[in-house]
Amino acid sequence: MPDADRWRDGPLDLGDPEAVGALGDVLRSVGYGDETLKKATGARGDFVTPTPNDLPIVLRQLKAGPRLAALVKLLLLNVRVPEAEAREALAPVELERLEAVGLVRRDGGEVIGQVRLVPHENFLYACDLFELEEAGKDPEYVAPVNPSSLSLDMLTVRQPVETLLDIGTGPGFQALRGSRHAEHVVATDLNPRALNYAAFNAQLNRIENVEFRFGSLFEPVAGERFEQVLCNPPYVISPDSEFLYRDSGREGDALCHEVVRQSAEYLEEGGLAQTLVSWVLADGEEWSAPLRRWVEGLGCDAFLFHFKTDKPLDTAAVQRPVLFSHDPAYIAETLDRWLAYYARIGADALGYGAVVLRRRSGAENWVRAEQLAVSRAGVAGDHVVRLFRAQDLLESLESPEAVLDERLVLEKPHTLVQRFELGDGAWGMDDASLSLDEGLGFQGSVDPPTIRLLPLLDGKRTVRDALGEVAESFGMGEPPEHREAFIKAGVPIVTRFVSLGFLTPAEG
User: What is the rounded average pLDDT for all residues in the chain?
Assistant: First the structure.
């Protein structure tokens, strides 16, 4: 079998897509979904992925009907189930067909799962058993849906496109999600085991518009262009090469740098590339400085999003060799080795975030950097589009003051929180903040004039007129030069609210 096709001969047989698709139908029909299983297993957070240490507790609090409980034990918890019970739970799909696929194995009158099937929203994903990760001996280990998967998913723009490229697809999370808004998806990965799982997951979810290609990064799509590119790379800056899904094997942040720059080359005009990244920061270096260097000269506009900055020890302490070991000496040696590596490459801190590019050739491109509170962010694809439109508007103005002639409206939903303190026998406002309750969840402090201004921006009056009304209400309407000074002082405030997507042009 050619190397390019060896992923087809993986742990799961791809030759019976009807049986696999029928299994997916069975699981959905009995409620094998993330919200149902969180309640059934007592799982907390965003994921239904109990660890072996959780197993005794989960089994004792498993609250589900007999059929669903059997499927949870068999396909999620890796617990043996009597063969008769397994057959009944899987019907009408024959146990023998699923055994031939490699999903389960019969042993002495019992059946045990060979992989985990993890639900998330309306999709099902097969991934490796925990024991393979704990052994730490298989670099091709296929991880389940994880926080980084959701971070990229949160930022992904879901507008319809003809072509989408998912680089480093892993078990196919981004590719399968992308299949809902793209006519054709190409998913690549250097890990043949992961590509095998991804193709199986497409069958499990009855998705037929995803094409899988084996190879490193963009090599399998050389010379092609796409309307959208997604990449959740192995971005951990690491001295190890333990797992393909985590460790790049490159020095420092070289892989993320390469992905960002190459993704621009594979974009159609107007197309978007969205990549999770981590990067090296020198002592005292502003967080966006390295990323600004990465996007220079790409012919793309760029948004740089910052999730957090960690100290080297923070990153080293949450890696598998430390978390899974019970040997203090080994843990200490591992931490020292990682810290020595960071010192050698000049990493005084490590930044984490995302780069979003939009190809716009033949023009002067702009770069914007924003801090995100990931804990507040939700589904943000539409908000990302709004940010690009907002920056296009601001860049198109002849001068900053030209925003005064725009008719703007305040986006919903939003929340205004005011804090008052008692003093001199009366309540006085101590501070106030305005936050977006959707998308990226931006928030910021606002003063009384801004609080008065925002409701007036209803699309019926210009920003200048609205600021003029605020000036009047604060006793700044006369003389005319005071009024004009007040209006001009509002320009940077309005501009900032436009740039964050709080304010958008009125329709028409």
Answer: 91
Structure token digits, residue 170: 């892993």
Grade residue 431 by pLDDT with cuts at 50, 70 and 90.
Answer: confident
C-beta atoms surrounding 419 within 10 Å: 9
Number of domains observed in the structure of the chain: 3
- Alpha helices for 179-280 (secondary structure H): 192-204, 254-265
Rounded to a whole number of angstroms, the CA Rg of the chain reads 26
The values of phi and psi at residue 65, to 5°, are -60, 165
CATH code: domain of residue 166:
3.40.50.150
Residues in the chain: 508
Question: Could you identify the residue written with the tokens 């919200």?
Answer: 35
The span from the CA of 203 to the CA of 195, in Å, is 13
In a domain, 131, yes or no: no
pTM exceeds 0.90, yes or no:
yes
Mean pLDDT of the 67-89 span? 92
Range with the poorest average pLDDT among 238-247, 273-282, 352-361: 238-247
Give me 159's structure tokens. Answer: 């507008």
Q: What is the largest CA-CA distance in the chain?
A: 93
